[in-house]
## 1
Amino acid sequence: MKYKSPGQSNPFALLPFIIFIAIYLGAGLYFQAAGVSMAFYQFPSVTAMFIAVLSAFCLSRDPVMYKFGIFSRGAGNDNIMTMLMIYILAGAFSAVAAAMGGRDATVNLGMSLIPPQYLTVGIFLISAFMGTATGTSMGTVAAIIPIAAGMAEKSGLPAPLLLGACVSGAMFGDNLSMISDTTIAATRTQGCDLKDKFKMNFLIALPAALLTIAVFLFAPVPAAETAAHGDFTFWKVLPYVAVLLLALLGVNVFLVLVSGIFLAGIIGLSDGSLSVISLARQIWTGFTSMNEAFFLALFCGGISEMISYYGGIAWLIEKLQKNIHSSRTAQLGIALLVSLVDAATANNTVAIIVSGDVARKISARFHVDPRKSASLLDIFSCVFQGIIPYGAQLLTAAALASQSGISMNAMDIVPHMWYCFFLAAFGILSIYIPFADYAIRKNPWKWEQ
């Protein structure tokens, strides 16, 4: 059956996400104000999303199975299925590596090399380097979060702080990397070169990263324990080292995680810390430990498709275009458009692709340099992807931390996403004070192109 969108903008199509945010955040804030511990755990996020799914099926009078087809198309698209596979493979790798003693060994190694007062900065820099080199924030989160969670447990530093440093670094890399899907999508939709977008983007991201490092260095936190690390065996560390090196070499993230699972399993079998049966059970435990992130991503993909089909995204675009009257408001409009679309789809690559054509038309009409519009698309999609509590990166981080024995919710990490907050501030500043335009002044854009 073919599904042809009605083609009309409709603000009511945004209702499902509004319902989800109202329930999830509202319940969390209510319980927090009431002094209930772990306030954002009281009303399960998956249940809130399920209620939003039910509301999405009330958006029209189309037959239920017709609407279910639209929902299934969104839930089963390539981006969603890729995320779901990364979720379960990351969970399995984390579970197997921890069961054979790899996580503790890696944490002890890290604690012996990095002074406790610099752990947060170290996690941020390692994640930033890996994210930039590999172009994947999800792969970076999957590899680094178990180590960060273990370091938090050993050092006494707040776990949300270290996890925020990891995800912040991952988003830095995702935003800047030349091989990131967001970079490729932004430059292709705007018709500019990767290197030009990188130069402009770097001038905006660098001060945000430096401020983030300063915050992680000087922010008041509980004193870390100086002698928290113990002994470690290199062979136990090898699976994490292999995962990092394979990712840096550009190996596909699925092959990286599968290789990590098998390597950790072989080491566990060889030293007796795992048996064939316990290895199989740990893999299954890793799969099921990611159920919250799995269901949220699945539901979110389906709802996003229904919102787009019934005109919610079209309404956002239409309203924004009506309020654009100059180059500056055009840039603000592009930033706001991709931010809202990312909040509605919870996928920064999809947000760029959906917003890209409209952003290019706006840029041409108001003479915004395409290299600037590409930079704005990538920056603000990454900003919101890093702070929405139902985004893939924060969900994965929270799930892997919980798997490591630390009670964690995605909302707990949001206040520590300093890089995303600073990146948004410098992104807006670059519109009013075009300091980043220095990167392209020597090669001005020719609009007759």
Note: The two ends are 41 Å apart (CA to CA).
## 2
Amino acid sequence: MNPTNELFQAIVNEMTEGVIFLDAEDRIAYLNPAAERIRRVSAAKFIGRPIHDLHPARTYAAVDELLNRLKEGRAASRHRVIQAQGRYFDNTYTAVRGAAGDYRGTLLVSRDITEKKDLSEENLQLKKILARPFERSALIAESPAIKAALAMVEAVAPLDSTVLLTGESGTGKELFVERIHSLSPRRSGPLINVNCAALPEHLVESELFGHVKGAFTGAVGAHPGRFLQAQGGTLFLDEVGDLPLAAQAKLLRVLQERSVQAVGGKGETPVDTRIVAATNRDLEEDVRRGRFRADLYFRLNVIPIHIPPLRRRPEDILPLAEHFLIHFARRMSKPTPRLSAEARSHLLAYDFPGNVRQLKHAMERAVALGDGDVIEIADLPREFGGTVPEPVGEVEVGDLKSALLACEERCLIAALRRHGGRRTETARALGISRKALWEKLQRFGLSEKLP
């Protein structure tokens, strides 16, 4: 063999691009090893066969048109992107002609552009996110489930009806409340948030309805209460399912009478506020078990809106992740990183028991600890397949602290199960306040694990 031909043969055999040569009759005359790998075919079996044998029937017309353009001289080369075996390839077809200009065949070169295409799609998504006004209450809605919930929000926002938001902890119910308020006629009024689970039991009535000076020990001054603070606006009762039964009865009366009586006060004050409530509990089940008043449930459940968990709307995972990457990169004065293909795959495969809040914290950690412009799997928390920093210094102290925290978490879980998830009884049995219990549940991420 001619040494020059041997050199060319060696070069083509080592190329990572797939090389196929078609003769003037559109039959396969040569395939290099890369083409065999890409097409998953054997050269020995395909040499001499028509190019159509490498393509599905639906593409025959497009391939014929492309080859005819090359033969007739209407184009010197053509590009065509195809998808095969889950990857993308940029195919370049080039007419090969003799010295007299006669058509000898077509050279087909296939380049794997999967990573380039993925990066392009990531950049487009980032541009879409950057084009949005960056607001704290920005809601990412790519999934049909969230789009349906937002459509319901926009429909009921102009009304004054009571709304009950349901969904697991961490799904972003507070953002839906902000949306309702901002689209309502009350948007110029206050939006007052009340976390019912965090209120000490003996102060629930005072916090909601107010108190007069001297009403009880420690009441050194008058307090208007959250209902009056929300006059002309919206009152958000978060975790309303955790209110004690006694407080539920008084809340029902206020909703019916539209007036409040401060603790220690004699007269009543009319209230003009819209109520939006939220819970991560199954209130219908709580009603059946006597944990929640049926009449209050029906009073709150005028317009129910369910916010699905993140695992039920995978279309939102990557847009949300990229939104949080931009947010935390700006806050930390860092360049905005992008997610690697492996990190994206791990995020999409995870079931997110902590929902959007868990994803947000994961992206904050990734930005804080990442030292490059790409978020890799190792930058993600351990539950996603990432790593955690090794303890340094006095390891024994760190181990003891971890052991104590683990013991405290097990104690909380056992107490919650023993008392059927009832926080008031759980707090009483543990000898702590409801507020202290709520803070511990938040610390350990146990809100969504209640029975």
Note: The first strand starts at residue 18 and ends at 23.
